[in-house]
């Protein structure tokens, strides 16, 4: 296992672990003693990684997983206690605001990452963990994973998570889940549209992940990045100008190296060269 050039000198907090196999980077949430609750250090470390790989076209996918049988149980209560003390000392709510907004910036960064993001969801997938699942491109869940938005039951709001949950499952379902604080398993998460596939054991999970990775490698790296960016734009831009720009991108792709290699591979009945990486 060798980290790519963009990551070799990166010093990250031990709340996460990095594991790379070729073009596939696995980012492990590594606080199993707290069910991988999201600490300030973890948020910062995740941002560090996604900042460093943003322009690294050799990394084609990021797999998000949690150590110890859990994905992420939400925000770290210990950090909340520390923020309470800091807010009292400065006589301002700013420490709360800064921390919460930093978490939202991290979620947005993962959402907009040019790489394909795959979430492997086991055990607790709560609060911030639920939000992270909602910005994945591919979500695979164990049937017995526990999903939920428990914030209102704790007297707080799913403040930074809410927009991404609504985009994932729609306003009607998001209102019900957030206001009732419901807990539900992987099969219900699939029905809601949070996850794409549900598996029943570790063997099935690894097999499905392997298949997903192979499919990711079949997509041309640059075409994949540009397609993801285009899909994001469909939510915010006027249709006519978006389609005009998409036509230009299509023309550039057809005449570019990937388009030529893809066409030649099809004619020669072979896999394109990018599938080997």
UniProtKB/TrEMBL annotation:
Designated name of the protein: Enoyl-CoA hydratase
PANTHER family membership: ENOYL-COA HYDRATASE, POLYKETIDE BIOSYNTHESIS ENOYL-COA HYDRATASE PKSH-RELATED
Lineage: Bacteria, Pseudomonadati, Pseudomonadota, Gammaproteobacteria, Moraxellales
Family as reported in the entry's similarity comment: Belongs to the enoyl-CoA hydratase/isomerase family.
Alphabetical GO biological process terms: isoprenoid catabolic process
InterPro entries xrefs: ClpP/crotonase-like_dom_sf, Enoyl-CoA_hydra/iso, Enoyl-CoA_hydra_C, Enoyl-CoA_Hydratase/Isomerase
Gene Ontology molecular functions: catalytic activity
SUPFAM superfamilies: ClpP/crotonase
């Amino acid at each position: 296992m060798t980290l790519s050039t963009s990551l070799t000198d990166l010093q990250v907090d031990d709340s996460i672990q990095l594991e790379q196999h070729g073009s596939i980077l696995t980012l492990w949430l590594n606080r199993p003693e707290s069910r991988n609750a999201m600490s300030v250090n973890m948020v910062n470390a995740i941002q560090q990684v996604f900042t460093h790989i943003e322009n690294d076209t050799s990394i084609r996918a990021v797999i998000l997983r949690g150590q110890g049988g859990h994905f992420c149980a939400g925000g770290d209560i210990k950090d909340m206690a520390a923020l309470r003390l800091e807010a009292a000392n400065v006589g301002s709510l700013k420490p709360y605001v800064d921390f919460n907004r930093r978490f939202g910036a991290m979620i947005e960064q993962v959402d907009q990452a040019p790489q394909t993001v795959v979430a492997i969801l086991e055990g607790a997938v709560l609060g911030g963990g639920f939000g992270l699942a909602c910005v994945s491109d591919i979500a695979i869940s164990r049937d017995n994973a526990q999903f939920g938005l428990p914030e209102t039951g704790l007297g707080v709001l799913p403040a930074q998570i809410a927009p991404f949950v609504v985009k994932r499952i729609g306003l009607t379902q998001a209102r019900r889940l957030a206001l009732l604080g419901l807990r539900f398993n992987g099969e219900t998460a699939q029905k809601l549209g949070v996850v794409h596939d549900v598996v029943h054991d570790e063997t099935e999970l690894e097999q499905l992940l392997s298949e997903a990775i192979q499919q990711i490698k079949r997509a041309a790296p640059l075409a994949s990045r540009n397609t993801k960016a285009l899909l994001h734009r469909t939510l915010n831009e006027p249709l006519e100008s978006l389609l005009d720009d998409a036509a230009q991108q299509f023309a550039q792709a057809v005449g570019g190296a990937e388009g030529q290699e893809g066409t030649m591979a099809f004619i020669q009945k072979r896999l394109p060269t990018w599938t080997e990486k």
